[in-house]
Amino acid sequence: MKLSVYTFARNGLRNDYHLLHMVRHHLPFADEIVIHEGLSTDGTYEALSAIAKTEPKVKLFRSDWDQFKGMEFCKNFKDEARKRCTGDWCVLLDADELLPEWEWEPLRKAMSTTDRVTLGMTLTNFYGNYRVYCAEPKKFRWPWMKVNVHRNVPGIQMWGGDASSVKADGEEFEMVAERAACDLHHFGYVRKPARLREAWRNMRGLLYNAPPPRFKLPSWLFNLFPHNWLDADFLPALALYEGKHTRTVLNDPAEFTRDGMKLYEHLKARANG
Q1: 65 near 38, Cβ under 8 Å?
Q2: Which run of H or of E encompasses 204?
Q3: Residue 83: Cβ within 10 Å count
Q4: Which of 81-85, 168-172, 181-185, 258-262 has the lowest mean pLDDT?
Q5: 137 vs 175: CA distance, rounded Å
């Protein structure tokens, strides 16, 4: 059974998506990694090209996503990557996600035994650093599951506001835990605090069907006023992560720490009374 992973990115380095770690992490898992790159201006394309030169599994191509309005670029960019996959099964991953190595074999087994066209994954949403996670993601409308694994067959559609899931023709879209074949580690909230606040402010309306901002604020403003990791609105939903870490995280913990471990120390002190 041949397995394809596909993703997309633009300015992934500037936006702090852990993109290069994500690609390298999945090389032992996938038979190919298809990446649709969106004409980056921050060195992302050059960095990905350097990996592709030495790793034949990486299939890199690029186009301009500014031709699409709103969040349509997500749907179109991911779908174009999907169309280039040659595996029997495909796994749609974002640039800030790591599928833990202990989940690889269970997922392959699920693929080989299911009669479904699509499968899902639950998500562990890390926040601030790799030792803290959000125990109540639904409270903030953060992703708790996605349907992102599918057979490589016609009729697959990108699904959701940011096209993080897929739907097969003739198959009802269900996001229920029983459909999850494994757990996915999501590091989209372990980013430079300025970039995190910028994304939340400028894109939240597009992602969550909320009224979009009337205008985008410039990046330099968020550099001056970044996200506050100890924001009281978030603290009640956070918990210390006591589970296993991937080799990628353990080999470079600094890459997956953006708060100086403030949240970990705060939650540890809270737990100790």
Answers
A1: yes
A2: helix 193-207
A3: 12
A4: 168-172
A5: 15
DSSP category for residue 67:
G
> What are the pLDDT digits (tens) for 106-134?
999 999 999 999 999 999 999 999 999 99
What pLDDT is stored for residue 212 in this prediction? 61
Question: Which amino acid is it at 263?
Answer: L
For domain 1-273, which CATH number applies: 1.25.10, 3.90.550, 3.40.720, 2.30.30?
A: 3.90.550
Backbone angles phi, psi at 63, to 5 degrees: -160, 175
Mean pLDDT across the stretch 169-176? 82
Place of tokens 């790793």: 55
- CA-wise closest residue to 229 among 198, 259, 267: 259
Sign of CA dihedral 239, 101, 150, 50: positive
Partners of residue 134 on adjacent β-strands: 238
The residues that bridge with 156 in the sheet, in sequence order, are 168
Phi-psi region of 173 (alpha: psi -120 to 50; beta: other; left: phi over 0): beta
For residues 16 and 22, what is the distance between their CA atoms, to the nearest angstrom? Answer: 12
Give domain limits for the chain: 1-273
* Residue located via tokens 């800030």: 96
Cross-strand pairs, 18: none
| Three-state SS sequence of 239-266 | EECCCCCCHHHHHCHHHHECCCCHHHHH
Question: What span, in angstroms and rounded, lies between the C-alpha atoms of 3 and 105?
Answer: 12
| Integer Cα distance of 166 and 146 in angstroms | 8
